[in-house]
Amino acid sequence: MSFFDKIKRPTLLLDEHKCRENIRWMAEKARRSDVIFRPHFKSHQSVIIGGWFREEGVNAITVSSVGMASYFADAGWEDITIAFPVNLREMDEINRLAGKVTLNLLVNSSETLQILEKNIRNQAGIFIEIDTGYHRSGLTVADSATIERIADICRGSSNLHFQGFLSHFGETYRASGRKDIEKIYRYGEKQLKQIRDSFNSEGSGIISVGDTPSCSVLESFPGVDEIRPGNFVFYDVMQLEIGSCISDQIAICIAAPVVDIYPDRNEVIVHAGAIHLSKEGILSNGKMIFGLVVNITEEGWSAPIEGCFVSNLSQEHGIISLGPSLLQTLRPGSLIGILPVHACLTADAMKSYSTFQGQSVSMFTGF
Amino acid sequence: MSFFDKIKRPTLLLDEHKCRENIRWMAEKARRSDVIFRPHFKSHQSVIIGGWFREEGVNAITVSSVGMASYFADAGWEDITIAFPVNLREMDEINRLAGKVTLNLLVNSSETLQILEKNIRNQAGIFIEIDTGYHRSGLTVADSATIERIADICRGSSNLHFQGFLSHFGETYRASGRKDIEKIYRYGEKQLKQIRDSFNSEGSGIISVGDTPSCSVLESFPGVDEIRPGNFVFYDVMQLEIGSCISDQIAICIAAPVVDIYPDRNEVIVHAGAIHLSKEGILSNGKMIFGLVVNITEEGWSAPIEGCFVSNLSQEHGIISLGPSLLQTLRPGSLIGILPVHACLTADAMKSYSTFQGQSVSMFTGF
Fold first, then answer.
1. Which residue of A has its CA nearest to B5?
2. CB nearest A259 (choices: B8, B87, B269)
3. Per-residue confidence at B4, pLDDT binned at 50, 70, 90?
4. How many C-beta neighbours within 10 Å does residue A194 have?
5. Considering Cα of A193, then A198, then A199, then A201, what sign does the dihedral take?
């Protein structure tokens, strides 16, 4: 029985070659730019894919939860930044981790840092997150008093060590094209530099940035010390729309069984719904879409088929809008491929990957 | 350590009392209306919650995938309808199930049915799905030739038995208020009756419907034989907006640790993102929201707090928009509750529940 025939249900296919190429390309760019490459592992959440990063010389990683940090620490990763504001309810696990690996934490409040300082029993690095315009989490240039207090508490602590300023230029996810992305990067980097220059009396404190659009589009990273991109490991339809990648770089795809064919509507129904792809949509040519459609074969998948897309999702159903020529080639039980809008959410929903070599690639399944 | 103190990470709380009340109320309504109650278990996906249905006399259930059917069959459920078009790639598992339980399948194409007929080795019931206006899957009144062919194939088969017409009035999810829902129900029920009357020369074939808005709002179910609601087991913000429930009936809630507080923005950041709540949003008073906010205590949660909602989600972050009075009561490490927009997707994402009695309620974790 061929690999293809073994696919019974919605299955997340991973093109190992494309994925490794994405990793190699970004690692090489970081080396060339002389910045620390600390990739965000929240996108793939897999120790196996982590191993592919290791082969490219990566030793330091970023994650987005304490649970994910523990998963990678247990797999031998020894230098981990949790790029999510410290959750004080996880103090026990933070202590366990800090005793085991080189751990960096994100703290944006002096109250949190004081409680952390009182309860931490091992060494840990502290980053302050700077909000340069995304307005999710982080302090701004205007919060200099809080930034100073955080640096002060670290100075007086025997366990906590100030590491620098970290930012996620998430506005780039709403950008369109290279120029827009570069503008956001320059604007953010300028603010980060301004903040570091004000507080850097001891010469310490790195600048760490990390969105996939900036890291993909920029040739080098002037003004920063570390990059933490994550999504680039797979890319997706959102990054394609932004202009961060070409479709050939997209490294995951859901294989979806066709269950119903409606020629009058130019639609087919597949088993691949919101619980597989996630409910993340994106406006593309004025239409909300939930994925692009590709042909899949034993060896890989095609470029996106023009005019074909996932037009709606419910829990298990995906509705595919497509032209009559593709529709005629499909039968009940055929497989089509769907490139996800947001690869990180799709990977998290699917909880494992299948390579074209028939390997099952496991991932973190907790929170 | 109290139950509350044990919550470290985003946790899906289940109010067993509210959930059992929802089940009891719908079971009683079905009995009063003299219709078969075959609840959709895709919403909770849990054998433990399934047991609460059994206590209300439920013996027949609906699921949305073959995997889910196997999970419930293994737990002793013996009468299962898979209300999702047959996926021919799962023939082996369908055969196994059909040999073990009373199994009903959904078939909307004569081609699928012919292949099914050739490969099925055990008895199974066949429903035809009728699309009365939702335009997801199903045949329409205009597809009488296909409907006739499907009935014909069943007549000639020793294993497949025509059971009737099944519909999901999904348009009710876009309705606002009782009148709108009733109108959709009457319109759909009329079409179903028309189709049954044309094909019911043998007097067989039931009419099965099942959306939560109709089943919640209607006092009885004239013209139908079976109801299959699922979401009502928990309800959610979407059902609240539609007018299918009151907020006090919502039976699940995510407990989210507060990690950052931004008084200037009237926002707090919680650990509860798209991988916990799902990325399903809903327009409420002209704003896209991803959940409503409640206070949680050791015993349960409050009504939604006016003017507080989840305004955005990324993978792990939730941004809560709230007034200064609530904001002042919160500290890093506080817990707030979030009522989900779409309970079925949130439950599926979280993969288990915690009751206020400290019980962990497991669920199906496959596809």
1. A89
2. B87
3. confident
4. 11
5. positive
- The verdict on A285 and A201 lying in the same domain is no
Q: In this structure, are A129 and A62 located in the same domain?
A: yes
Could you tell me which chain A residue has the CA closest to the CA of B131?
A262
Residues B216 and B255 in one domain: no
How far is the CA of B307 from the CAs of A186, B247, B287, in angstroms?
36, 15, 11
- Decide if A276 touches B, using CB distance below 8 A: yes
Please identify among residues 166-185 of chain B the ones whose CB lies closer than 8 Å to any CB of chain A: 170
ipTM surpasses cut 0.90: yes
Stretch 310-339 of chain B: residues touching chain A, C-beta under 8 Å: 312, 314-317, 319, 331-333, 335
Q: Test B9 with A65 for CB contact under 8 angstroms.
A: yes
Determine the distance in angstroms separating the CA of B32 from the nearest CA of chain A, rounded to an integer: 30
Q: In 10 A of CB B149, how many CB atoms?
A: 16
Give yes or no: residues A54 and A176 share one domain: yes
Interface test with B, best of A1, A3, A5, A9 (most B CBs within 10 A): A9
What is the length of chain B? Answer: 367
What's the pLDDT band for B245 if we cut at 50, 70, 90? very high
DSSP string spanning A248-282? Answer: GG--EEEEEEEEEEEGGGTEEEEE--HHHH-S--E
Domain boundary among A229, A263, A291: A229
Question: By percentage, how much of chain B surpasses pLDDT 90?
Answer: 93
Which of A173, A199, A229 is at the close of a domain? A229
**pLDDT at residue A146 tops 70:** yes
Boundaries of domain holding B306: 246-362
Average pLDDT over residues B152-167: 96
- Once rounded to an integer, what is the mean pLDDT over residues B156-184? 94
Q: Which residues of A touch B84 (CB under 8 A)?
A: 259, 271, 316-317
> Do residues B277 and B191 share a domain?
no
- Give the global pTM: 0.97
Q: Domain with B180 in it: what CATH number?
A: 3.20.20.10
Q: Mean pLDDT throughout A15-33? A: 98
Among chain A residues, the shortest Cα distance to B139 is held by A262
Q: Is A83 on the interface with B (CB under 8 A)?
A: no
**What does the alpha-carbon distance between residue B40 and residue B83 come to, in Å, rounded to a whole number?**
9
